[in-house]
Design goal:
Blueprint lengths: L7 H9 L19 H9 L9 E5 L4 H14 L4 E4 L11 E3 L6 H15 L14 H15 L4 E5 L16 E4 L7 H4 L3 H8 L9 E3 L7 H11 L3 E3 H4 E9 L2 E8 L5 E5 L4 H17 L5 H10 L7 E5 L2 E4 L5 H15 L9 E4 L7 H8 L5 E4 L10 H9 L5 E3 L3 H12 L5 E4 L2 H10 L1
Parallel strand pairs: 1-4, 1-5, 2-4, 5-6, 6-7, 12-16, 13-14, 13-16, 14-15
Antiparallel strand pairs: 2-3, 8-9, 9-10, 11-12
């Protein structure tokens, strides 16, 4: 007999015992990635994804932060707001959140116990396929959790891709796509246009879509998707007349001028110029879909938004910044903001990098960006959830910056970084959310 679910830890252990596509190494085929199983799973529980309006968010860089900003602004407008994001950094509870409210462990356990009773009884030959995946179960639990809490609205972030993502069974009131980069190329395709096609899969017939700042070549993919599905597509680059950003270790200030509205000013607790762009995308989306939200509510909501592991200032002396950037675009934008906030012009390389990358990423391209920019570099192991090769990553970085060392254990890597910092030089931890999770746990 299977063990009862008594605590959230029991729930998460049970969910993680299923096939977990987030671990990677799973071929892109109809057996692994399709929506029939998710639709059937939801139908067994009365289609809880229809309990409240939803906003759907996909992209490569900034989709978690944009989701958090959307949810926080909606919460500030008086709505009980659900927020579903991934991956988590320290606790799976980060994935399923009621914005601005405490966790509800008893609710989660009660819901999961009911889910388990039905899922365990499903025959493998049932219509829709074999047992659900980990991400499908998290998605189901999120919809049930939000419905149980009586949410007025929820923001739902995709996992991988969009078109065949388990979340793409919803009928949202808006679709949002943040900046793209080459990621999960084994699953989504090896060109930015192929990735854009997968992300554009969340654009629904008649549902407005809002597109963040994008690399060249992909805009037409989204325009074509909008034409095919009768969906109005709004591009942030065409809406912004002007924007100015000021960065500090206390937060980010944004002055935004749109082509059809008065100028507005926002203050974010989230750090980084890219967070200002995420806030602009969230604002452009909500002012169109929910024009009743006031400027004061936006300002309060954006200031309150938090998200672990996204340019998170975990310590102030020395500054230790945690960011799960794991693509060339992401680390490039991260480095630019890190320099602006924490480095002195007289010492542009006066910082320490702690880096760890999992298999399937592009450490060479990230090394080309990061390695020349730091005084000292330590490479470490980004946990055991996904395979990694720290020795190979170290050789890549050392080929560009000879002041690179390998410390396989994250605790040893953090000690080394702090010794090199001498409580003076800032430390940046990046390369993977799993690397960030290891260091965050130690801190």
């Amino acid at each position: 007999m299977s063990q009862d679910l008594r605590t959230p830890a029991d729930v998460f252990a049970w969910v993680e015992s299923f096939t977990n596509l987030e671990r990677g190494g799973t071929p892109f085929d109809g057996r692994s990635y399709h929506l029939d199983r998710m639709r059937r799973l939801l139908a067994l529980f009365g289609d809880p994804q229809r309990a409240c309006p939803l906003i759907h968010v996909a992209g490569t860089k900034g989709k978690g932060s944009t989701s958090a900003l959307l949810a926080s602004a909606l919460r500030a407008s008086g709505r009980r707001t659900g927020l579903y994001t991934s991956p988590h950094v320290s606790s799976p509870f980060e994935r399923i959140v009621l914005a601005g409210e405490p966790e509800r462990p008893e609710t989660l356990v009660r819901i999961a116990a009911a889910v388990r009773e039905i899922v365990d009884a499903l025959p493998e030959e049932a219509p829709g396929g074999f047992p659900p995946t980990t991400f499908e179960l998290y998605t189901l639990l999120a919809f049930l959790y939000f419905g149980d809490a009586g949410c007025d609205i929820a923001v739902v972030e995709t996992g991988i891709g969009g078109r065949l993502d388990a979340t793409n069974v919803i009928e949202p009131e808006a679709s949002v796509i943040t900046p793209l980069d080459l990621e999960h190329t084994d699953v989504l395709g090896d060109t930015i246009e192929k990735i854009a096609f997968e992300k554009a899969g969340i654009i629904k017939p008649g549902v407005p879509a809002f597109i963040g700042l994008q690399p060249p070549l992909v805009g037409e993919v989204f325009r074509e998707a909008g034409r095919e599905r009768g969906a109005e597509v709004t591009f942030l680059i065409e809406e912004m007349w002007n924007h100015e950003v000021e960065l500090s270790s206390e937060g980010t200030s944004l002055h935004l001028e749109l082509r059809d509205g008065p100028p507005v000013d926002f203050r974010l607790s989230l750090l980084g110029e890219f967070q200002a762009e995420n806030a602009a995308l969230a604002y452009v989306t909500l002012r169109r879909v929910h024009p009743e939200i006031t400027l004061e509510q936006y300002q309060a909501g954006f200031l309150a938004a938090r998200l672990p592991g996204r340019m998170e200032l975990a310590r102030r002396k020395p500054p230790i910044v945690l960011d799960g950037a794991h693509t060339p675009l992401a680390v490039s934008r991260l480095l630019a903001s890190f320099r602006d906030i924490f480095l002195r012009p007289s010492r542009p390389r006066g910082a320490v990098l702690l880096f760890g990358s999992v298999a399937g990423k592009n450490p060479r391209a990230m090394a080309d960006i990061l390695a020349p920019a730091f005084e000292s570099i330590v490479i470490s192991t980004p946990g055991t959830f996904k395979p990694s090769d720290p020795e190979e990553v170290c050789e890549i970085f050392r080929g560009i910056n000879p002041r690179t060392v390998l410390r396989r254990h994250p605790a040893a890597a953090l000690r080394w970084a702090r010794e090199r910092s001498a409580d003076a030089l800032p430390i940046l931890v990046t390369g993977s959310f799993y690397m960030v999770a290891e260091i965050r746990r130690i801190l």
